[in-house]
Amino acid sequence: MSAKKTEIEIYDTTLRDGAQSRGINFSLEDKVRITKRLDDFGVHFIEAGWPDSNPTDGEYFKRIKKHKIKNARIVAFGRTRAKGRTCAKDATIQALLRAEPDALTIFGKSWDLQAEQVLKVSLKENLKIISDTVKYLKKKGFFVLYDAEHFFDGYISNAGYAVDTIMAAADAGADRIVLCDTNGGSLPSFIAALVCEAVSKTGAVIGVHAHNDSELAVANTLAAVEAGATHVHGTINGYGERAGNANLCSIIPNLMLKMNFKCIPKKNLARLRELARFVCELANVPMPGNLPYVGDYAFTHKAGAHMDAMKKMAHSYEHIKPLLVGGSTGTVVSDVSGRSNVIELAGQLGIDITGDAHKRTVRAVLKELKELGYGGYRFEGAEGSFELLVRKHLGVRKEFFSLEGFRVVVDKRASEKIYSEATIRIEVPDGKEFMVAEGNGPVDALDNALKKALLRFYPSLGEMRLIDYKVRVLDERDGTAASVRVLITSTDGKGVWGTVGVSENVIQASWKALVDSIEYKLLKDGL
Predict the structure, then answer these.
(1) 139 lies in some domain
(2) What is the pLDDT of residues 404-418, one digit of tens each?
(3) How many domains does the chain have?
(4) Fewer CB atoms inside 10 A, N or C side of the chain?
C-alpha cells in the first residue's frame, strides 16, 4: 500500500456525461437535488451541464445560485471556439460566460484526424483555437479545465501533435489538463505512461477522464493516479454513454482505502452507498446488485463454505469492512449496522434517536424498514416518507385526515385529449368532505381533489406543488401485473422533499406517495 497522502480532486460529471446514458433523463429538480448531495458528500467539482445545449441546463445555472453550495465548484461544460470565429463572437463561449459558473471545462481536439476531418481545420489552426479559447476565458477570470478529447487515440496517431495540444492549453494558462480516453479503448499501462509524460512535459496539474468501453475505466483511472494524475473524472454508478464512465463509487473507496490517498472527507465515505442509491432512484433506473462497494450483493454470501468461514473470521471473504462504505454483510441480518443507518438518517433530518431511551424505537423502525424493503420500498430520495415513518414509531406522527374512499375516471373522448376526474371522500377535523376535481392525468386529478378538500383546513397546502413523478416497475417478469414503486418530488417554494409508495396498482402507489407528501408538508409547517 502506498504511503502517499496526496489529495486527489474528485470531478463528478453525473449530471452531464452521466445524463447521456441511455434511459436517464434528469429533471431540473433532480439535478439540483443531486448537486446538493454531491456537495455534502465532498466532491471538489460538479459538472452540471452545457448551458446552451438545452433549456434544463440553461435554467439550472440560474436556479443553483439560490442554493448554498459549501464544498464544490459548479462547472459549466462547452467546446473550444468555432473555426473562423473569435471567442467574443462565438455563441457557445458567450453562453458559458452568461451561466456564471465557478469553473469552466472546455474540450478540444487532441487527435490530428479529428482536427482535420471533423473540425476541418489545419493542425496549426487547431492549436490556435485551443490557445485562444483558454486565454480568453482566463482573462475573463474563470478557473479553466481543459479536456483533451481523444488524447490517447490521438497519441497513437501522432504522438508529438497530441502533446502539442495539451502544451497549447497549459501555456495558455489552463488550471487543469485532463487527458480523455474518449473511446474507452486504452489499457492501464498505456494510460500510466502517457500521464507520466504529460506531468513531465507540461508541469501542469493532470487529470484523467476515462470511459468504460473495455471494462477498464476504474483501472485506468487508478493507473493514472499512480502515474501522477491528481484530478479524476467519473460519475456515480458509472452512468454515461455507451458502456458508461469511470465509476466514482469504486474509484473513491479504492483511492482512500486501498491507495491511502486523501479524497473526500473520511467520515463521508460511510455515506457512499446511500449516495449511490439516491442517484439511482432519481435516475429512475434499477441498480445492479453486483456493483462493487455499493450494490446489494457487494457483501452478500451464498456459498456454504463462505458462510462457515465468515462465522469464524469475518473478513475471510470480504476485502473491506462493509460499514466503511455504508454497507453490511448479507449472510445475517446486521442489527448493529442497521441501527446505525437508521440513527444516522434520522439525524440528518434533525431527529435525535440516539441513546438507550430510543433503542426500542430504532428497532421498530428497522423492523418496518426491512418489511417494507421486502415489498419494494426504497427510501433513498424519499426522505419525507422516511421521516414520517420514524415519527410514527416515536408516537408523534399526527393524522391530519383519513380516507373514506376515492374513484378515478379516465375518459377518452372524440378529441385527442384524455379526460381525468377524481372523486374523493375523506374525514377531516369537522366531519367528512366530498370533492371532485379534474387533472391532466389520474394522479394529477387525485392530487387536485385531495388538496381541494383540505385547503379550508390547511391553507398552506396552496403553496405546494408536485414537481416530479417517477414510476419504477419492480419485477418486469410480471408484466402489467407487476408491483410498481412511485417516487414523488414536491415543493412549497421553500424546500423540496421526496415521498414513496408501492402497490400492484399504480394509482394506489401514487396515492400513498401523495398522502405522505401532504402530511410531510403539514408536519414541516408545525401543524
Answers:
(1) yes
(2) 888 888 877 666 677
(3) 3
(4) N
